[in-house]
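name: query_chain
kind: protein
chains: 1
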Amino acid sequence: MSLESEGRRHRAAAATVAGIPVEIAEVDAREATLRNSPQTATLPRHGTSEGRQLRRWLTQLLVTERVVAAEAHGLGIAITDVTPTEEDLLPDLTARLEIGSIAAGVLASPQARAVYARVTAGVDIDGAAVADYHRRNPRRFARGDGPAPQFGEVAPAITEMLRGAARRRAFRIWLEQRRAALVWLAPGYEHPGDPRQPDNTHKH
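structure:
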């Protein structure tokens, strides 16, 4: 490929993942799909600051999907019958907020959930953390105005809740690290929260 052709190819990329381009046309196609969905009435107008932020978010989703696919291949991960469901990993709105909208979006994929299971398999909670949580939140699993449950009654539920939160945090951190290592973003396709890009609304 000539230098001129390589330059055109680079300019057509919104990002690269491990050196492989994510074409602007892919962002266009993902946006078109979204704008043709029932969600279209809630979306910002194309070409506005908010519209450009939407495209940045879609770019993040695309590159994260590529990162997960590359890591699944590298780790030799296959989708199996025991791959967790989306509800297993993200049981409620709090869980989705904890892990972030991009990671939550990616976990719609069985492949991503299989990667999640592998990456977080070693994350667990010790008994002291469970007991401490119950001490600080004795009514967390109480029924209405009834008495606070005894520790032994709620220890399994607390363990499951804390383990889920710890694994979501571990996956989010792992994903951020892998994106930092593998992803390059073109000007105009930066992370929506990047304070250096002109459409970021959270300036201080």
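note: The first strand starts at residue 13 and ends at 17.
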